[in-house]
């Protein structure tokens, strides 16, 4: 059982998941299903970024949707107003979000706990107001219309929903691979050390401010790239992209799947949009339905689905190791007794 779990949780599991993503268009009923899944992939990429700063570093950034909007509007403004090629604008979407995140991070990360979260909530609302009011740059409430689709790359075209689906899947796969490398590196261990105890991390020689700023910048870089993909996929932008409710949605994805895990946020980001689609008849009672469900999840699965499975397996292995350690002295004592009897 443990061997099977290790295989599914390792490269084999990720390979099977990627294969399922590649095969999905062949079993999807129509283009609408492809659109729903593609949008879920985009928000999954942003959620993975939020999980880095929140789940692995312990800093809850409530402006994450604002940074996603920065990436989206970077693509929209550059392509529509200035005629910049899509891929150049897309590359800049992550860079612009990261640069802005660096300056906001060196200010906001001096705060701790809920003070940091409240500060970033204000930053996110300021981003929303700037997008809504600065009509000369962002087109205000009218929004940006006519964003071009991603330019062809050689023989690869990105016009149909299926082609756009595979494009978004590619970036999600690359983003997950890069995040796996980050969290399993020495830098990733520094992030976890800061989350577990800032005092202990500092005593071990970790530069707290530098570590948290790096995590923040990487996190919003993911949000910016997700926003750039969103702009090229939807091809219309409005101020609502920066709404804090998107950050709360991504937070819900992390809590459901398992915050501070690799697979958990991805699971939550892919499962919840489909659950919402199949419960559209309850749209008016969305919070009445999802609120109690989320409360029950936090009570009975406080580590999320994936996190709770990992916790259960860790406790099981711990009990097995403890039983083996208790059995070892007993076996040694019996062997000694047998040797004494033969003597």
From TrEMBL:
Locations listed in the record = Cell membrane
> What membrane topology does the annotation report for this chain?
Multi-pass membrane protein
Q: Which domain of life is it from?
A: Bacteria
The membrane spanning regions, by residue number, are: 12-28, 34-53, 60-80, 86-107, 114-131, 164-183, 213-233, 253-275, 287-310
Q: Which UniProt keywords apply?
A: Cell membrane, Membrane, Transmembrane, Transmembrane helix
What GO molecular functions are on record for this protein?
A: branched-chain amino acid transmembrane transporter activity
List, alphabetically, the InterPro entries matched.
Answer: ABC_transp_permease (IPR001851), LivM-like (IPR043428)
Listed under GO cellular component are:
plasma membrane
Q: Please tell me where this protein is predominantly located.
A: membrane
In its UniProt entry, what is this protein called? Branched-chain amino acid ABC transporter permease
């Amino acid at each position: 059982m443990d061997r099977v779990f290790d295989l599914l949780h390792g490269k084999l599991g990720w390979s099977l998941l990627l294969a399922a993503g590649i095969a999905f268009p062949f079993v999807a009923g129509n283009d609408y299903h492809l659109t729903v899944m593609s949008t879920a992939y985009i928000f999954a990429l942003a959620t993975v970024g939020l999980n880095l700063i929140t789940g692995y570093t312990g800093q809850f950034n409530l402006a994450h949707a604002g940074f996603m909007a920065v990436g989206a509007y970077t693509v929209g403004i550059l392509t529509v107003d200035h005629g910049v090629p899509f891929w150049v604008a897309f590359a800049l979407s992550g860079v612009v979000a990261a640069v802005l995140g660096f300056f906001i991070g060196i200010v906001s990360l001096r705060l701790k706990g809920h003070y940091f979260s409240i500060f970033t909530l204000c930053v996110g609302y300021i981003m929303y107001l700037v997008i809504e009011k600065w009509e000369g740059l962002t087109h205000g409430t009218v929004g940006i219309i006519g964003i071009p689709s991603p330019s062809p790359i050689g023989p690869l075209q990105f016009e149909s929903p299926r082609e756009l689906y595979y494009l978004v899947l590619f970036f999600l796969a690359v983003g997950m691979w890069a995040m796996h490398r980050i969290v399993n590196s020495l830098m990733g261990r520094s992030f976890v050390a800061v989350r577990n105890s800032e005092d202990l991390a500092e005593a071990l020689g970790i530069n707290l401010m530098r570590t948290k700023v790096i995590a923040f910048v990487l996190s919003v870089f993911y949000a910016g790239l997700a926003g750039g993909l969103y702009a090229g996929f939807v091809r219309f932008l409005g101020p609502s992209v920066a709404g804090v409710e998107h950050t709360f949605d991504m937070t819900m994805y992390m809590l459901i799947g398992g915050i501070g895990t690799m697979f958990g946020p991805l699971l939550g980001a892919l499962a919840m949009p489909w659950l919402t689609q199949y419960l559209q008849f309850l749209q008016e009672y969305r919070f009445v339905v999802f609120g109690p469900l989320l409360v029950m999840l936090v009570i009975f699965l406080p580590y999320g689905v994936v996190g709770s499975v990992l916790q259960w397996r860790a406790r099981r292995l711990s009990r097995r190791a403890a039983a083996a350690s208790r059995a070892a002295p007993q076996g040694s004592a019996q062997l000694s007794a047998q040797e004494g009897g033969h003597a």
